[in-house]
UniProtKB/TrEMBL annotation:
<protein>
    <submittedName>
        <fullName>DNA-binding protein</fullName>
    </submittedName>
</protein>
<dbReference type="InterPro" id="IPR010985">
    <property type="entry name" value="Ribbon_hlx_hlx"/>
</dbReference>
<keyword id="KW-0238">DNA-binding</keyword>
<dbReference type="InterPro" id="IPR013321">
    <property type="entry name" value="Arc_rbn_hlx_hlx"/>
</dbReference>
<dbReference type="GO" id="GO:0003677">
    <property type="term" value="F:DNA binding"/>
</dbReference>
<dbReference type="InterPro" id="IPR053853">
    <property type="entry name" value="FitA-like_RHH"/>
</dbReference>
<dbReference type="Pfam" id="PF22513">
    <property type="entry name" value="FitA-like_RHH"/>
</dbReference>
<feature type="domain" description="Antitoxin FitA-like ribbon-helix-helix">
    <location>
        <begin position="11"/>
        <end position="41"/>
    </location>
</feature>
Amino acid sequence: MPLTLTFTDTDELLIAALHKRARAHGRSIEDEHRDILRSALRPLPKRPLDDILRGMPDVGLDADFERRT
């Protein structure tokens, strides 16, 4: 189902940046806008918790993070 998006009162610098980005990627402003929306709204890939934990840097000992009362 086609959808039309209309933007009003948009900053001219933002529009100029969109034109520049579209030219740099060799595509139309509409295609560039579509790609920006797709990138911004694409769900993040799910990763297993152990994979995420292994990717965290070692920043100290557990005792370094204990609450002080």
